[in-house]
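Table S5 (text form). Sequence records supplied for joint modeling of the two-component complex.
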Amino acid sequence: MKRGSKKGYEFGFAWIFTIFIGAVVIFLAVYIATQIVGMKQLERESVRGKKIGVLLTPIETELEAEKFATILVPDETMLFNGCDPPQSLGNPFGSQHISTSIKSSIGGKWDVKNEQGVKSTFHNKYLFSNQSLHGKEEFYVLSKPFNLPFKVADLLMLWPDQEKYCFVGFPDYITNELMDLNMANIILSPPASCPPEAKKVCFGSSCTIRVDIDTFNNKGTVTKEGKTLPYIESFSSGTNEFTLMYAAIFSDPEIYECQVKRLMAHAEQLADIYLEKRKNIGCSPILQNPLNQYKSAVSTAADNFKINEPTAATNYLNNVYAKAGGLEIANNVQCNMF
Amino acid sequence: MYNVICSKKAQMKIQQMAFMLVAVMIFFAMVALVYFSISTANLRETAEQLREEEAQELASQLSGTPELAFTASSDCSACIDFDKAFALSQNPNHGKKLWNLDFLMIERIYPDPVEKTCLIPSDLPDCKNIRIINLPEGRGLSGTKTAFVSLARWDASLAGGSGDYKYEFGKIHTLAKNP
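The corresponding structure-token record, covering 517 residues in total, follows.
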């Protein structure tokens, strides 16, 4: 433009209007794109949560004594384990929730708490783990049956590739089993020494996770995060006796409490099936009394088992074990229903 | 005079621009509609596929569940306990609340059963099927997954009247839960 020229660039209504509308269109486009990306991410996370839940079904034991499996994930994933305790009216088995958060390749910080997929709910699964598990490529699952005295459920112990457990000073019958299973991120010491990042699980001595076994009374405790988690042995031969001990080692105390309540509630429901079966096959009524006593014991444990009251919690489990023992003896004498 | 002509041109331009903007917005709205309808259909399909996968996995794994596993004898570890299945059918809420299924039925195939549903204990020796979870009203059977299973049940007439387990052949039917 020439100096002193009266010609000017007219910034009229049309320009202002265009810029305004352009800005609105661009804002809308960016907003919609962000929403679509967020929705797709939510979809991916929800699908992954459900897929992991479905994948856990064939990992459960059928004929096998125990199973170890690896779940591969294509991206860095945070898995959340949620548990609702049983409610006698609406939800007699309680609920197992599984959800995930996947690290996105675009965007900034990974806000794992607020960016979770929709929870997938199962009522027949018992996942013992920390409440959140950070896996870069793999998650590991150990599946073991829990018999009290009949099979109540398969317990699934879950840990990610970012967590290592080092078992120190355990007796041979446990280390031999762990060695046979050859599980990833489980280190036995000796022969290997514990890496510094591994969680130390010590038998009878204090460290991150302390395990005490009272084989004479078929029970024990796992002490972690300042809390004592009581457990009872499973009515299985061999190493599957310690199913609930492994569950306590790999779980957060809150998850352990909730899942034990669910197991007890499930045992109560199964006792009803055996009561019905006893009647239908014309089995002697002598079995009815131990079944009813057992049902009452598991029902009490399901309602009252609390980690914060360790003495009472231990007593509830001991009572269940005693009644289960009585039931097993009666079953072996009569009918052999399970 | 000049001003008047100029103003008409500007009005025309604004009108043109407004029409253009409306057209562009309609175009984007249509693209968005098509995208969302495709993506919703895909999502539905994925959800349906996942539910079917779950039903299939359950069908093949049910013989190992404590509700149905035959544990009374070591003769057939992979068998379904027909007596337990019948006991379970007496309390339809149990199965409904435990499994994410809309339908669960155990069918006896061999030896040839009588065409009837097992409703009372005396039906057990020859009835055809046990419905553990009844199909909800208005739900079709399409998408039902099946798996062959061995069945075991107590037969009081065997072993000279002292009773023994009888092993038969059957099929398990599962249908995924509709949300």
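Note: The CA atoms of residues 143 and 156 of chain A lie 5 Å apart.
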